[in-house]
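queue> holo job accepted (zinc ion)
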Amino acid sequence: MTPETISKIKGLSITQVAEKLGFTVVKKKALCFSHDDRTPSLNFDEKKGRYRCYVCDVKGDVINLVEENLNLPFVDACAWLINQFQLVVTEPYRLSRFKKANRVVKYTLPVIQSPFQPNPDIYEWLVKQLTLSQTGLNYLTTKRGFSREVIEELDIRDITDPITVFNTLKEEWGTDALLECGLCKIGDNNIVKNIWWDYVIIFPFADLNYRIQYLQGRRLNIDRIPNKYINLSNIRPYVYNIHILTQLNDGDQLYICEGIPDTITAMHLGLKAIGVLGASNFDSELVTMLMKYRIGVMPDADTGGQIFMDSVRKAFNEKGKTVQKYNIPKPYNDLNEYFITKDC
Ligand SMILES: [Zn+2]
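queue> job finished
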């Protein structure tokens, strides 16, 4: 539980919590659960959010009241309260640390006018089922030059058997939920299709609370079908490595990269970087969030890179902020290409 979640829970009305637990509260008093009580001696202090019995001196806050009465450990008591009162909380997904599946904690997504919504519960569940095969590891280390530490930190995994993975997903979550979060789509003849049909490396996009908001697949076998990157269906790509913002102070340098490999490369070079998947995913909400940093961009040395640079610059200029452009040394096309060739 994050401190924010706990303070949200502690902000609940102690009387309402007591009533949910089955107490009859009259004039802020109820029969005590801890001693043989005939006249109500359990007092509720609405302001402090606490209870106390003036006979046996049992006392505590809303969470203690649930712990005591339902005989639950702290975390489960919190989860019970979150569910009972439909609290909107964001619990962190801890990268590289597997937590128990089937958590009871509910969360609510911001309302967007679309039936398609990212679903961190499903994405995290999927990532936890996956490992990284030797093929994936070889590609990331040898071809891309990424270290094992960074691969682990970013929770990069792969799918070697997409059919089995898809069937497991369907069994656990149902087709409707998978459609809504972009993990499958309706193909010809109304047939539900897995979005990843052959070997892919999976890059999870964690938000500031370490919850996974997006997944991108990287195919390696591109002889027959040339698509390298496979995005979720109908879900807007999230910003890659946005969690780096928690390590920045106001005025620090932040690099905006196009795509995942350049972002990871920048990190290897000791730069703080976030990745945006294409110019169209650069929006004003993100700009507002980044106003307090010095912004640098290392666009690819091609037309796409120029378009990307222009759109980032325009978005910041509109808010009165300048953006520094850093050129990739010739003849390299992008940062990762430079990195793996140059032996930085
Ligand atoms: Zn008592």
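queue> Residues 32, 34-35, 37, 41, 53, 55-56, 58 surround zinc ion (CB under 6 Å).
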